[in-house]
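seq:
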Amino acid sequence: MQTIAILNQKGGVGKTTTAVNIGAGLALLNKKVLLIDLDPQANLSYSFGILAHELENTVYELLNGETELKDVIIKHGNLDIIPSNLSLSGAEIEFSSLPGREFLLSERLQSAQDYDYIIIDCSPSLGLLTLNALTSVNEVYITLQTEFLPMQGLAKLLETVDIVRKRLNRNLEITGIICTRYDSRKNLHNEVYEKIKQYFGNKVFKTVIRDNISLAEAPSFGQTIFEYRPKCRGALDYENLSNEILKRGKING
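struct:
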């Protein structure tokens, strides 16, 4: 089983879009996938048409022990989803005094053994919720928009992952960099992409996610890109990325 956190403390870089569509892409490749929404904004949940604000059982109730894993999972086709909602927004303060607060999610996921992939969509911050994600997985994928500003703050993110690896989860490693909203016609995008490759080397996926309006439209219909417009270039990119993830897993396995 591969456990992956999709991470970036900056919003608007395609983090949730990537979590949704690599989850869906891997499921289409006959892999059993569990997607976890660990963001109080619940964007991943809404992207699947889940009315998060109406739910009684979410990842928040799972973390505080009010419900069990099997009772919080929602199915979307052949995907399993643990949804979030706004109630998670108080978790940073509410759980801060609990012993072992960084391992709440890890403990709750111990019974989730029947999956090929567990993928966590992290909140756009480096707080307690993200720490819970990083202690629950072995791999981190960072989504990076190929522009200047999204590169700012990357050092802090890398530092956080390094601290968690040293103190809380020795198995944690950044294994993938996903470049998003890429437009090959723009010189800046090409320059930033080359800098990303120079810095991260073979951790950068060969597949880049091109700028595509359909990727922005699909969540409003509660659909993945493969359901909404399966022939568009966004679907093609995430199909290729899913195959690349699968191939990397086989090599590493």
